[in-house]
Amino acid sequence: DAKTTQPTSMDCAEGRAANLPCNHSTISGNEYVYWYRQIHSQGPQYIIHGLKNNETNEMASLIITEDRKSSTLILPHATLRDTAVYYCIVRVNQAGTALIFGKGTTLSVSS
Amino acid sequence: GAVVSQHPSWVICKSGTSVKIECRSLDFQATTMFWYRQFPKQSLMLMATSNEGSKATYEQGVEKDKFLINHASLTLSTLTVTSAHPEDSSFYICSANRAGYALGANVLTFGAGSRLTVL
Q1: How far is A96 from chain B (nearest CA, A)?
Q2: Contact B106 A42 (CB under 8 A)
Q3: Over the stretch B54-98, which tens digit does the pLDDT of each residue have?
Q4: Quick check: B95 and A102 CB within 8 A?
Q5: Does B3 have pLDDT greater than 60?
């Protein structure tokens, strides 16, 4: 069973921030939060990951609550090319450990 | 860096034939690679973990004699779908992470996927 809960779908206007929530109330102390996205008919693309501190890179920001039971992925200025399925996954940061995908959130960005 | 290449990107075959899909890490060594399968409108399902120089570990419900995995080098894993049938038609995706334990090294990189259609 997936260890995260995400909304099935979300809509966002182009140019606005997209905030994608994820609940992971059973996360263990050694598990990280990873975000990937999958554009139609392509392989998943890594976005960002974190343990407990907020993280930011060129693609997105990751906000993790203090109790680590939930997080939010923020795409600051969504574009049409950000339309994809976004997966939030918890996983120990250890070589040889697979990612187990849930159903993810389908983000639709429209003009 | 961290590019994973899959070949072929799509293949059509007749029922009963075997199809081989290659997964290569182009700029890093991968002691472990993972194979996933994705049916239309569904999420990725982990099929097996491919370990260099040893037997693959299959997930429950995945037939090891039907989906043969070989990880002969640190940069290549192959998945062979034997005696393919129409129900094996799917999107097959591999992923790999760099050998080592540094924080940044354990991000899995995915290939672009291989779409198999069995007639």
Answers
A1: 6
A2: no
A3: 899 999 999 999 999 999 898 999 999 999 999 999 999 999 986
A4: no
A5: yes
